[in-house]
Amino acid sequence: MVPMSVKEYDVVAVGGGTGGLVTAAGAAYLGARPALIERAALGGDCLWTGCVPSKALLASARRAHGMRHAEEVGVAASSAPLSFRSVMERMRHARATVAHHDDPERFRKMGVGVHFGAASFTGPGTLEVEGVGTVRSKRIVIATGAEPFVPPLPGLQEAGYLTHESAFQMDELPPSLVILGGGPVGLEFAQVYARLGARVTVLEAAPRILSAEDPDASAVLREALEEEGIRVLTGATAVRVELAAPGGEAGKVVVTDEGDTHRAHELFVATGRRPRSEGLELERGGVDTDGTAVRVDDALRTSASGVWAVGDVTGGPQFTHAADYMAKTALRNCLLPFSSRVDLDSVPRVTYTDPEVAHVGLGEAEARDRGGRIFHYELADLDRAIVDAATRGFVKVSADRKGRILGATIVASGAGELLQPLILARRHGLGLSDVAGTIFPYPTMVEGVKRAADAYQRTRLEGVGGILLKKLVSWLT
Amino acid sequence: MVPMSVKEYDVVAVGGGTGGLVTAAGAAYLGARPALIERAALGGDCLWTGCVPSKALLASARRAHGMRHAEEVGVAASSAPLSFRSVMERMRHARATVAHHDDPERFRKMGVGVHFGAASFTGPGTLEVEGVGTVRSKRIVIATGAEPFVPPLPGLQEAGYLTHESAFQMDELPPSLVILGGGPVGLEFAQVYARLGARVTVLEAAPRILSAEDPDASAVLREALEEEGIRVLTGATAVRVELAAPGGEAGKVVVTDEGDTHRAHELFVATGRRPRSEGLELERGGVDTDGTAVRVDDALRTSASGVWAVGDVTGGPQFTHAADYMAKTALRNCLLPFSSRVDLDSVPRVTYTDPEVAHVGLGEAEARDRGGRIFHYELADLDRAIVDAATRGFVKVSADRKGRILGATIVASGAGELLQPLILARRHGLGLSDVAGTIFPYPTMVEGVKRAADAYQRTRLEGVGGILLKKLVSWLT
Q1: Using the beta-carbon criterion (under 8 Å), do A52 and B383 form an inter-chain contact?
Q2: pLDDT of A4 higher than 60
Q3: How many domains does chain B have?
């Protein structure tokens, strides 16, 4: 018999973001008794401080920008004043709508035990949850996510700063911002603030923005952001922060390694995220870490028997769809006798700036190293892009000799949507010939994908088969 | 020897729209000597009076509408006055940009003989081209397209009317229009005119608009159009047109079979299109017709040896991408010894209203008749749709017991883009399990496709396999 104060479950997910929610819901669906332990509110970063509210702000910023540039489609531009507060209120309203999906009652009705409180390991398979008591399970899935990594810059704490965790609580737009970090988070916020009326400077230490993406994508996006008036500085490392003299207009000054100073009303730190595992007392559970990341193998097992980890806390790709994928894999592995492995190279990623940057698989250099060839198509040539005034961007696909897709990058309005046929083809072994041999409706943006595949098809006609085909035609005509 | 006035080619395409252009370019690419005969300008309806200019107008109309409804994303709405003339000028500018693809010099450089003039058969394999002379070929591909079908309504000719052939020449927006026909052309124009400021009434004889599409799609689109202030009347057959008394505000009156009258400044006829074959003297070439449609088999052969037909003139699907597909098939069949067949059921179609309506394969009723099951997902539930304020619409997929895709309809902003993964999957035999087993980036609109596929996956868990899986889980936990 279990003592009264101990709750026992078949599966316990620690963390109520995507990883934990998918684990718990899936376990309930399969008839196991799952629990979900969360410190704050179900939904995680994605819902509260990440994808959902940021995409809501991007939608507003996109609309405002489209209104100011309506002449590009022959419509009189609007310079109606923007209310930052109403944009933020609308974001919160949209977020509240989405939040219904993550209502604790919904999960309780599925049969999930939902407990609120901070959890820590007290031993193998045993957790203590503040205000709840002891929770025991033979299967624990750690899904505690990540948090902003704030670099230890002298003066930064004193000056104060925003991150994606605090930014959605603001109600007034700072007239000017310096954003530290030119990755997806920094650039999405940069575009939001700039389009809503702020003067924005982005400082990126690497030689280019979006340094994990295709270099051409970085260049196209940089050009787009600069055209909108955003100052983008690369190879610029912040070394300290100072408060400007009182009474001055803009209060915070970032000093770079070259001694340049960048002054603004507000700072935004977007220099990466780090796994959130402090307070879990992982060592008591026998769970090894790399820094704050929970170490997992490709079956998502930690060093402790009966403990798995999924999502951002593993230090893997920091995406909701990655957490979903990992949670489904971990759930199979913890409930069923066979072991599935994750293929994190197959996880696509999208930066939701305008244009969006979407990628799956190998990068261009890596693909070339493996003998891949690159097929590139510029949207400036695409009929729908021309009529929609959305010609900025390209489709780039790498493929091996047989046309199998190694990787793909799309920069376009809606690139995250347009990439899906290539993600599907790559996942299921369809090649560029198969893509080229499929009818795409005209006129669409996704035709750009077909055009890149057509470029591959033409190389086949340049090969031996093509020469024979032309000889045959010449002989028959 | 061929007399001086006779030009001889390996392949002759009659008609310089998509079908003819693709035929001629493909033949040149394969090393044959092709010619292209066109009465007016290369590019066809698609470029001059169809897809290209209509999508340009829809882009402007979408922008104007988005500006007036910007509160939906927390941005102050704009009521800036619209200049119809500048929208039309912008459309012509975009069209001119696209037209570079169809520049005759580009085709001549490929090795295509481009001849302008009306063509007619003078015998098997022989054409007379006005102002050019006799053109002979063992392989003739008829690609003369279609034209608006104007019903023989008493009073219509006297009153005057617009069609898609004349509408792009206008520079002033009629304050009010009655549109005859609630198919894709009628509805796209209805939305353009309404969003640009006209009062629009659509009269459709069938019981619903877009009668070839999914009934739910018709209903959702009708609701959207009516919310924008468009009057949509179904089951309403026009029987005659009258001119209103001089001096009255609106000059033209459509009388329906029920005696209702609909008065407007202008009429727009969008009651279908009919193949354009008059003047070709097809009987002299031995080419049979059905009405004005050139009769073809599924290898696109006409009744005359050495004559094929592609695109709208066959009376098949009236889409640029269908003409492209047919032209590629006909070219293979006329140049190479094996015979390919077209599968016109695989041709997708999109109505480019907002929301768009995109479809491929079987309709719901047909799919159910074949034992298919329907998987439906409402965009109102989708996170990206919520944050983008684009929740109107759905994804509906029909699949057989094994999950193979029979058909799919998407109603959504950008539905024409979102359908492509399903078109690709259907074409290459991937099933809904394969779609569900693919990672979709979050948060995207195309995730709606995955959600529909997930609904299929859940039915598998309800089957024998699912029961066994749950038993296994229960036994293991």
Answers
A1: yes
A2: no
A3: 3
Same domain for A406 and A385? Answer: yes
Which segments of B75-195 does DSSP mark as H helices, in order? 84-99, 104-110, 156-159, 184-195
Strand order in the sheet with B405-412: B349-351, B356-361, B405-412, B394-399, B373-378
Determine the 3-state secondary structure of A405 from DSSP.
strand
Q: Is residue A470 part of a domain?
A: no
Give the per-residue pLDDT at A436. 97
Q: What is the DSSP letter of A152?
A: -
Residues of A in contact with B101 (CB under 8 A): 381, 383
* pLDDT over 60 (residue A2): no
Residue A337 forms part of a structural domain? yes
Q: What is the 3-state secondary structure (H, E, C) of B431-446?
A: EHHHHHCCCCCCCCCC
Nearest CA in chain A to B83: A75
Residue A294: domain span: 6-42+103-148+275-344
Asked which of B344, B367, B392 is the last residue of a domain, the reply is B344
Nearest-CA distance from A441 to chain B in Å?
Answer: 6
From chain A residues 272-301, the ones with a CB under 8 A of any chain B CB are: none
- Residue B338 has what pLDDT? 82
Q: What is the rounded CA–CA span in Å between residue A317 and residue A304?
A: 22
Determine, for residues A387 and B77 on separate chains, whether the beta-carbon distance falls below 8 Å.
Answer: no
- Residue B113 shares a structural domain with residue B20: yes
Are A279 and A267 found together in one domain?
A: no
What are the structure tokens assigned to B466, written together? 């699912």
CB contact under 8 A, B414 and A416: no
Q: Say if pTM beats, i.e. exceeds, 0.95.
A: yes
Across the range A73-77, mean pLDDT stands at 97
CB nearest B81 (choices: A76, A388, A444): A76
pLDDT tens-digit map of A326-367? 999 999 999 998 899 999 989 999 999 999 999 999 999 999
Contact B208, B214 (CB under 8 A): no
Q: Please report which confidence band the pLDDT of residue B466 belongs to, taking 50, 70 and 90 as the band edges.
A: confident
User: CATH number, domain at A433?
Assistant: 3.30.390.30
Residues within 8 A of A (CB atoms), B 422-451 only: 423-425, 427-428, 430, 434-435, 437-446, 449
Q: Give the best residue of A91, A98, A442 to mutate against chain B (max B CB count within 10 A).
A: A442
Same domain (yes/no): B25, B141: yes
Q: Is B468 on the interface with A (CB under 8 A)?
A: no
**Contact state of A387 with B86 under an 8 Å Cβ cutoff:** no
Tell me the mean pLDDT in the region A212-224: 98
DSSP A374: E
Question: Do A11 and A142 share a domain, yes or no?
Answer: yes
**Whether residue A12 sits in one domain with residue A143:** yes
Q: How many CB atoms lie within 10 A of CB B425?
A: 29
Q: What CA–CA distance (Å, rounded) separates A106 from B86?
A: 52
Q: Does A153 touch chain B (CB under 8 A)?
A: no
| Closest CA of chain A from B420, distance in Å | 6
Read off the pLDDT of each residue in B10-38 and give the average, rounded to a whole number: 97
- Asked if B473 has any chain A CB less than 8 Å from its own CB, the reply is yes
Model confidence at A462, in pLDDT bands (50, 70, 90)?
A: confident
For residues A254-264, average pLDDT: 95
DSSP 8-state assignment for residue B50: S
**CA distance to partner chain B, nearest, from residue A335 (Å):** 6
Task: Output the six-digit token pair for A458.
Answer: 């033409």
CATH, residue A238: 3.50.50.60
